[in-house]
Design a protein that fits this description.
The chain has helices at 27-48, 54-72, 85-95, 99-118, 125-135, 137-147, 152-172, 174-177, 187-192, 209-227, 236-258, 275-284, and strands at residues 2-3, 9-10. By secondary structure, the protein is mainly alpha-helical. One of its GO terms (molecular function) is squalene synthase [NAD(P)H] activity.
Length: 285
Amino acid sequence: MTPASDGRLRPVEHYENFPVASWLCPPRLRRPVAAIYWFARTADDIADEGDAPAAQRLADLESYRSDLQACLGGRSDSGRWPAVFPALRSAVDAFALPAQPLTRLLDAFEQDVHKTAAGAGYADRNELLAYCSRSADPVGRLLLHLYGVDDAAALAQSDAICSALQLVNFWQDLGVDVPRGRYYLPAEDCRRFGIDPDAPQTWAAHPRAPELVQALCAWTRDLMLAGAPLVHRVPGRAGWELRLVVQGGLRVLRRIERLHFRTFQQRPRLGPSDGPAMLWRAARM
């Protein structure tokens, strides 16, 4: 579903491997979690969906940022996104959501527009993780705020999980992203496997592309496992939700492995048959 101009929710062609505000989420947190999700989802759509030129996308994101500032400041917004900001304002008022993670998400979406317009990629893993610190990690930090968990160790583990989930999405979506001018393969890693980082049109057919994807998946798995102990810090049903999110990410990596890391040609998907294995592994964490 996605917010429409009239404020109602409408279907959109977004495939999500990871649940949002599911039945495992504590009932009192479902509305703020959904508000955070729709804020991020809508901004991501502004940056990525449709045929608008880069200048229009950036102008729309600037308007969106202005409405966010109005929301955070207790002022009236433009009314342009009625499915987003009233709910977000309620969450801000009820839970004192911090401003920085929300604004950092918008920084990331603006970066997406600039990178895509320039046909630019990422130099190395550190630069890619710096992007994830704006595009993914803020969501985890906002959720931890809702759960009342805010120590440095927990925040670092949340960042590891969120960055890993973002990277999983990158590696599963190579066949979709590269033709659209979204380049997330780090140039340094490409060169390690003899792949020209400046010739994305050659990546899919390169004989060592699966080796590159395999190396990046191994790095991503290690990052996910580094953050996994956080599941024991998040209380109650939310902790079980997080266990399934972690196991969902790891399951996608296993699906990529079963495809022999050929995600330029085929996109992995989770289905009902993956549920029992994820539940079993979640229980063993």
